[in-house]
Amino acid sequence: MNIRVNGEAREVRARTLAALLDELDYGDTTVATALNQTFVRKKDRRETTIAEGDEVEILTPRQGG
Amino acid sequence: MDAIARADDALEVYGAKLGSRLLVGTSMYESPAILADAVRASGAEVVTVSLRREAGGARAGGAFWDLIKGLGLRVLPNTAGCKTVKEAVTTAQMAREIFDTPWIKLEVIGEDDTLQPDVFGLVEAARILSNDGFQVFPYTTEDLIVAEKLLGAGCEVLMPWGAPIGSGRGLNNVFGLKALRAHFPDTPLVVDAGIGAPSHAAQALELGYDSVLLNTAIAKAGDAVAMAHAFKLAVRAGREAFLATPMEPRDMAAPSTPVFGRAFS
Predict the structure, then answer these.
(1) pTM above 0.90, yes or no
(2) Buried/exposed code over B4-33 (b: 16+ C-beta within 10 A; e: otherwise)
(3) Residue B263 — φ and ψ, nearest 5°?
(4) Is A30 a member of any domain?
């Protein structure tokens, strides 16, 4: 299945957001997620399915001004 | 003012009492160690942070977050770079989950050259986020009407720019900033962006602004830690000067040495 992750085209096997994080080796990294520009809470990732063409954002804490 | 009076002069924002009136960013430092030392030297009790993309396995964000948590300060996440209401709202929701705070420095950027706020989107995003339980710190201009609408949208603090982000130009529109201060005497006002030197920060506090938020002026100084301390002193000096009521400027000279008793007169 082809989706975009953080702006890059990716071919993935995962069918849920939680499975996608595992597949992409995020492990226990502190991240926040959005699917098609809508926030997905951590506790909802396992039930959130992803589909062909979806856009996923995976963000982590970073320096800011 | 004595030290006891100064200790009572806390800045209160959304119920939080802050002993320091300097808020600092965490970006562009040469190293994490210099960042940590500079933040400590600044005396700031609030630091701004952001969210950015990270590839799986990179772990850079986690290391940064551990460093910030180790400082034991309040964090103010931002929505830097967001250009639409949707982007800003989603980023704020993501930040709330990661940083575990209802505080959000709301930026909706309207134009790349000046990084000027899109004040229409800003008001709309502020209303959505305030209704969702956020405590919004809006990065805005000195426009009085926009300020009125932001307060109506639920904001309890306003953060007008001094000058474009990262420009270091200081307070571009002193008249406008004074008008904003006069129009909203009871609203916490923070000059955010454009501060380049400690004198700019002192000037903002002398005008009656409650606080300043800056990043580049410290991070890009030749000695960031020393500059952070200089800003700490400037903010204190500016605040104490404001509380002491500065003299009114006048157009003509007025001798400071007594005229009475002058020789040869």
Answers:
(1) yes
(2) eeeeeeebebeeeebebbbbbbbbebeeee
(3) -65, 155
(4) yes
Instruction: State whether A30 and B53 contact (CB < 8 Å).
Output: no
**How many domains is chain A partitioned into structurally?**
1
pLDDT at A5: 96
A65 domain residue, yes or no = no
Supply the pLDDT for residue A29.
86
Q: How far apart are CA B187 and CA B141, in angstroms?
A: 15
Element (H, E) at B105: strand B103-106
Q: Is A8 on the interface with B (CB under 8 A)?
A: no
Residue A10's DSSP bridge partners are A3
Furthest C-alpha separation in chain A: 37
**Is B105 annotated as catalytic?**
yes
A12 assigned to some structural domain? yes
The domain containing residue A44 runs over which residues? 2-59
Residue with tokens 């002069």: B9
